[in-house]
Amino acid sequence: MLDKQLEARLQDAQVSIIGSMLIDDRCIGDVLANVSLDDFPSGVYRSIFDTMRLLFTSGRPVDPVIVLDAMQGGKELGNCIRQCMEVTPTAANVLEYCRILRELSRVSRLQEIGLALTSASSLDEAGKLVAQANGLLVDRSGLKIMDAQALMLDFYRRMQEERKPEYIRTGFSPIDEKTYLELGDMVGIGAAPSTGKTAFALQWAARLSQKYRVGFYSLETNAAKAADRLVAQLSGTPLGDIKQRRFTDEQWARIGDASSIFAQGKFEHIQASSMSATDIVSTALSKRHQVVIVDYIQLVGSSDREKHSSLEVVTNTSMVLHQAAQTHGILVVALSQLSRPEKKDGKPLKPDMHSFRESGQIEQDLDVAMLLYLSDPDDYTGSRICKIGKNKEGRKGEVELDFDGTIQRFTLAKPNTAAQLAAEGKKAQQRNRQTGQYQQQTFVPETGEDKALPF
Fold it and tell me: Shortest CA distance to 64 belongs to which of 50, 79, 42, 45?
């Protein structure tokens, strides 16, 4: 049962909106773009609003007589409609009435959820109610419509801003130069087992946590193991020494420096085994995570107790995470297993977008897809290739990375000077053949590594 004061305020907001729509039908389109039928509690005002909505969307005129006739109402309903018009002096403030109604309707639904929680008979039922509450607590901007003129005015405004846009960086300049990642994007990192995808994700998470609130949802690696890998990465201490608790004074000093910097960040490790996609989104909203990293997507559970195939669960998980990214402005990084590669002439083929295991939905939902694989399929100590297989806002391509498994750290691969010289030499020869001139060439290899951070 609603609080009496809240109930009265809800009624006032509903009356003002309906009255505005009846005294000035030019505002009906704006109202329908800002509130929905769900914002009106059950009752006569909900029925009146629904009738006007249906009349307007079907192209029919909306006035008191037509509304009353469509509802087949009598004298009592006619008096209610007349009262809405009489207490609303002007439709000029209708958008403010809409804002008030949206806010009050969320509060009333939260109260209803609170009452339902007191009678929940299982954790599963309670969890679903909490997820609904978290969704209501997030302030959504609602439907945004911009005409052609508004789009162009906004474009010129953005282009004239002195401050350049800041995109989310991975720490590897060749990757960052191709991608323009922002909050609200969904990124996939696909790799076969033992390629280093968790280490890659942890390294990125540590970097992002210095600026963003990061939630690392692990369905495979517990908190202690994640901490061991992070300390190895950040301090350059061999993971084997950490596992055996065998440190030199110099290592302890490096660990102290690295851990103190990392501890100032906004990183949270969530042991997510048995969590569903809905559970992950609910937790992310309650913890206000700006970056959500899921390791890995094929291990995410079903949101109900019904038995579903792996394909169905992964498909639903991808859709839920993608919707959360767009709706709530979260950067979602979904790690994924890749299917076993096909072979040609006895050698495995390079992975592509179809390699994402279990579901084609993943490749559809991603804004950026990174495929991580061994440069030499037979050498796990060798370099890795980070292939950008999908990129909605930039270029695709491949970036070679060295992976030091001893300290669980990725770095840009050192350029092959001989190969670089040969390639540059061929280009120079081609230019000289065209111009007829031969000149001495100077080559300066560029690594493009980010020197600002220790990882």
Answer: 79
